[in-house]
Amino acid sequence: MAEIAMHMGRNRVARAAQAFFRDYLVLVMIAALVTITAIVEPKFLNPRNLTNIMRQFGPLMMVSLGMTFVIIGGFIDLSVAGIINLVAVVTISLIGPLGQIPALLTGMVIGAACGALNAAAILTSGALTQAEALFLTFGMSTVFSALALLYSGGMTMHFWDIKTSKSMFESIGAGSVGPFSVSFVIFLVVLLLLWIFQTKTTEGRAISLTGGNKTAARLSGIRILRSIFVIYVVCGLMTGVGAIVLFSRITTAAPVIGAGYETNAILSVVVGGTTLKGGKGSVLRTVMGVLLVILMSNCLDLLGVSTYLQVVTKGAILILAIWLDNRKQV
Amino acid sequence: MAGNAIGVRVTGNGVGARVYTFVMRQKAFVAIIVMLAVMLFSPRHFYTAYNLLDMLNSTSILLILSFGVTLTIIAGGCDLSIGGILVVSGILSIKLQDVMPMELAIAAAVIFGVVVGFVNGFLSVHQKTEPFIITLGMGLLLTGVAQQLTDAHPVPAKNPAFMMIGNGDFHGVPNLVMITVVCFALAFWLMRYTQFGRNLYAIGGDYEVARYSGIPVIRTKWIAFVISGGAAGLAGMLLSSKLNTGSSIYGDLTALVVNCGVVVGGTSFAGGIGGIPQSGLGLLVFGMLDNVMNMLAIRSYYQVLLKGLVIVAIIWLDCFAQKRRREFV
């Protein structure tokens, strides 16, 4: 008897450990990455490097948090690159004529409006699969990028060309509150809001249910069309915020700065453990995913790996993460 | 009386419904007719054999890519890694010429495409992951490989014989056009007259039904991905030969444009519908759009905008047609 109990106990521990590894593989990977890099390259733990990592947190994190809702809802959004391009060039050009706060708000409204346009295209055409949404939003991305090119005339705009005050954007980009950078504080606030939205509100729960099974959600009285609209607007809004943080940090805005953000955001969300099939996932997981992606590029930079090989690594990790995610379901 | 009523209803529905069905089925054809009509009123030299052949020539690479992709889309998948395969095998076909004869380097470039297609097939068919996202990741990975191979600089080809593959012509017909025609014929025969092709349609139509009817579903769909990869390898080699350089930047949007082009032609993401000729027409829409916009001297930013709008409009129509089918069945 005792033997059986012991056996069962060991089994349970083993199974719990297995479940932990499966669900929180990303945490294990982060820990391994930090340990290895800290041993190989002690510069990694320098306060300056850690501040640097904290600053890189901003843009990708905002975009990925928005993307999380789209993926939980069972869809995908390739248009974030185009939205970043458009919001960045429009916002930076409005700081002079409109002032800072109106420019900021306009940027966020444009982001949300782009998301609403995506949702309108998807809802009116009845595109209910991920593949259809992928191609529609790709087309929208091309349109938004073209609008950004037309608006800016293809020119790069710099902070130092703005004659009026731009202190708010400068502090978003480089200021700090105590030991934290301003962008990190923004991230904490946004994360709290989105976490409450996802877990504590009816709409947030409705999004998860829509992603899990559209037919079942519709039959149980959830307005799935509204959920789809909401996820794209949230994603557009967050992408707008990300664009503002991005151009504040690099102090320039070009109509091409968003390139690559769509794949990086999808990568972060999936690596964090939100499943592409929809229904399961959380903004907290995405934070871990983004942390892993940023730490990885930081470590590879410190170790002197070329940017090109970093792209290869990202692609490989994306494939691996999707493959593991898929096996988990079976 | 009843017959009359039905007759009235049919004719009342008739013209509008028929035009609607035609436009929905033949989106690409309609678009091409519209562009041809617009160009009738243009003073420029659009209707010359030179321009039309040139248009075909510049679309040929995309056409070869699209024939492979069509197979995967008909089988209910899709292949977004072709942009990555295109650039890597293009670079390989030039770089490998330093260490081996030209013919072997060309073969190696195509084999590289086949190998990547095999891996794509393993992941998306055998392991049942979502093909579009897994091939997107593969495309990202391969773009990195291409940048690493070339240090993000273009690599020039040194062999004039290699350049002639993509730039030579036979009695005025460019080599590329002839190769495209051969590929078209092969793919058309494969999809229309072989058991493999018919099985692909069945798999795309309903995977489970196909499986229960005894079709080797996994193997057949897997082969579709392998062929798509091989076609992309061939196209990459031809692109390098045509430009006489290999570079990591050409593949950026190619994959998405080709996949959209295939859908424009009438092959649907739902799978099981479409064919090689339709894909050819779909890609020609994009080729002709480029040509027409250049002829009309439209500014390049407006060209990007127009292209994006065309992509959105066509995918929108494709989804909309499916929605109607879903609702009315």
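qc> Chain B has one domain: 27-328.
qc> done
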